[in-house]
């Protein structure tokens, strides 16, 4: 009998320990919930509330007026027309220049253009000095320039002199190793050799050293007596925004928000892209070699990359919603423009939380696909015509 009671009491003791353990675990989980969220804990058997899901739309691009991120986003009201863009070599700047020049055509704005007619590098403005007005196509009397998007070197004072009404100063940068790879493939003679070499050895920098001009050259760093740290601080104050090639669409959404532009103002097709730089590899040692060769460029890029990510973070989740919508629109525009024929109907982009309804016609597609040279020629003729028309009045 005594042996039976001992056995029975052991079972009672074991059951008691198990019950206490379960209660303690549930209590601790509840306590952690309150501590982490800093809010009262819901009953353990409460059913979590679910956000309302909007009903299905007939068109994936149509307006979602009940999207919280869309409702709470502050919308600007006044479009800014004056932009001075620093066109940096091998950073996707030709595509950005195309966007800005089409913007000028759309709103009948004045563009700063070299006064060169079919001469060598007629699209390049070059250095800015006090005699710059003698080297650019004149603006109509009583008018001011609005857009600068041709090749030059950065000089904020001259940018503001040419575009006097508070221009938005815009730059662009690219990750140094990818930029160097793009530059290597851009050279036709080197590209032919590389394509043969890559069949057996994809590591392109083993045979071809870094050779691209520094990005800081276009920012006029070498015309400055400042060290890199002071120069970065100076550029921080002089640029309103610096885009990143690797985050081109994200850059355009930020720019759109800052300038109060629309999706129609920033849609694009990639211009002057090198399609043959596929199938190469970069070893850690080669990467380190490039970064050391372009040490100042790397420091400059990393600083403004940090600024860029900070800007995106401030815009919240609504930024991602708008970015997603923009990518959908880009896909529609690119598909249409790739296969459009003269006389086809315009593409209709429906209204959404992030854009008004707009059209893309075959002519807009043609302009989007123009490389730099023919587009600059077209703009030069137009700018001279504007000046001639004003002189006859």
Write a concise keyword list for the protein shown above:
9 strands; 393 residues; alpha/beta; disordered N terminus; five-stranded parallel sheet
Quick recap:
The protein has 393 residues and is of the alpha/beta class.
Strand content: 5-15%
Helix content: 40-55%
Which shape, going by the Cα principal axes? globular
Measured on Cα atoms, how large is the radius of gyration?
A: 29 Å
Describe this structure in words.
- The structure is a single chain.
- This protein has about 400 residues and is an alpha/beta fold.
- Helix content is about 50%, strand content about 5%.
- It contains 15 helices and 9 strands.
- It has helices at about 1-35, 70, 95-105, 155-160, 175-185, 190-195, 215-220, 230-240, 250-260, 265, 285-295, 295-315, 315-340, 360-370, 370-390, and strands spanning about 85, 110, 125, 145-150, 150, 170-175, 240-245, 345-350, 360.
- It has a 5-stranded parallel β-sheet with strand order 2-4-1-6-7, sandwiched between helices.
- Helix 9 (about 250-260) packs across helix 13 (about 315-340).
- The longest helix is centred in the N-terminal third of the chain and has 36 residues, at about 1-35.
- It is globular, with a radius of gyration of 29 Å.
- The model is unreliable at about 1-10, about 25-60 and about 70-75 (pLDDT under 50).
Indicate the topology.
Elements: H1 2-37, H2 68-71, E1 83-85, H3 93-106, E2 111-112, E3 124-126, E4 147-148, E5 151-152, H4 156-162, E6 168-173, H5 176-186, H6 188-197, H7 215-218, H8 228-238, E7 241-244, H9 248-259, H10 263-266, H11 284-293, H12 295-314, H13 316-339, E8 347-349, E9 358-360, H14 362-368, H15 372-392
Parallel strand pairs: 1-4, 1-6, 2-4, 3-5, 6-7
Antiparallel strand pairs: 8-9
């Amino acid at each position: 009998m005594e042996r039976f009671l001992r056995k029975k009491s052991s079972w009672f003791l074991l059951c008691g320990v198990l019950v206490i353990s379960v209660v303690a675990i549930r209590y601790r989980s509840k306590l952690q919930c309150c501590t982490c969220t800093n809010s009262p804990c819901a009953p353990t058997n409460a059913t979590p509330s679910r956000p309302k899901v909007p009903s299905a739309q007939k068109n994936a691009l149509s307006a979602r007026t009940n999207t919280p991120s869309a409702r709470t986003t502050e919308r600007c009201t006044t479009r800014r027309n004056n932009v001075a863009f620093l066109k940096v070599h091998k950073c996707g700047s030709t595509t950005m220049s195309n966007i800005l020049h089409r913007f000028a055509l759309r709103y009948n704005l004045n563009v700063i253009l070299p006064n060169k007619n079919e001469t060598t590098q007629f699209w390049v403005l070059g250095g800015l000095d006090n005699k710059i007005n003698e080297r650019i196509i004149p603006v109509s009397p009583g008018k001011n320039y609005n857009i600068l998007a041709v090749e030059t070197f950065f000089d904020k004072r001259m940018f503001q002199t040419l575009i006097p009404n508070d221009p938005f100063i815009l730059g662009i940068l690219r990750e140094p190793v990818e930029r160097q790879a793009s530059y290597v493939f851009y050279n036709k003679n080197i590209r032919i050799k590389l394509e043969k070499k890559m069949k057996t050895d994809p590591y392109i920098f083993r045979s071809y050293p870094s050779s691209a001009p520094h990005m800081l050259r276009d920012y006029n760093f070498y015309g400055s007596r400042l060290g890199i740290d002071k120069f970065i601080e100076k550029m921080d104050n002089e640029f309103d925004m610096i885009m990143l090639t690797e985050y081109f669409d994200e850059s355009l959404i930020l720019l759109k928000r800052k300038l109060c532009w629309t999706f129609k103002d920033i849609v694009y097709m990639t211009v002057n892209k090198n399609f043959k730089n596929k199938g190469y590899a970069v070893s850690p040692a080669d990467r380190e070699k490039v970064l050391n060769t372009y040490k100042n460029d790397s420091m400059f890029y990393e600083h403004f990359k940090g600024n860029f990510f900070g800007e995106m973070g401030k815009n919240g989740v609504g930024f991602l919603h708008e970015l997603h919508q923009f990518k959908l629109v880009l896909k529609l525009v690119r598909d249409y423009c790739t296969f459009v024929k003269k006389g086809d109907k315009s593409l209709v982009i429906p209204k959404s939380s992030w854009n008004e309804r707009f059209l893309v016609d075959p002519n807009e597609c043609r302009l989007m696909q123009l490389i730099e040279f023919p587009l600059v020629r077209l703009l030069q003729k137009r700018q001279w015509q504007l000046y001639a028309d004003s002189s006859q009045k």
